[in-house]
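Milestone M4 deliverable, item 7.
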Amino acid sequence: MENRTLRIVLNKFIIYLFLLPLAIISFGASANAGLPMIMLAVPVYSISLLPIIAIEAIYLQKSLDLTKRLSVKTAFVSNLVSTIVGVPLTWVILVLIQMLTGGGAAYGVDTFVGKMLAVTWQAPWLIPYESDLHWMILFAGLFLLIPFYFVSWWSEFLVSVKMLADTGLSKIDIKVKVRNANLITYSLLAFWPIGWYVVGYVLK
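Output delivered:
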């Protein structure tokens, strides 16, 4: 089962490696470089990976009555999948959607609607409004946590179901507990765009 999970991860990672350069090259040309938010997200997720695994392992152990070893193993593998495959692949898809729907153009941030579109529709790859990037990173980062959360929840749920197949736990119970674990860790991840904004404001 573990070998099969590893093969699935590697296959999806290979797809991601093919799609990412295409998205970066194509969209980068139409968006005048801009700021791909994955450049900020990947370091944050990488640094946060071990604390996230620890928090989710403790929660899963308590809520699902698992052994410490099994809870750590489940949290480790499932978070590895979501971090290496789920989040980057989701970003690539969001970039492609942004690019294909005309989100590569600079429509301005002079109006409320323009500001909203700049940090939602154009959140995956921010248009380079240099004087506004400090607040754009804050709101775009918070917005992107929403799709990243749902992808992390479902990818970790699918992995966890396979790894906990012999425990007799119901899929619904695992689904709910994995959701709750991600709610906890993603609430903590919300501090990174807030922290970025605060640091940028202080240094401004």
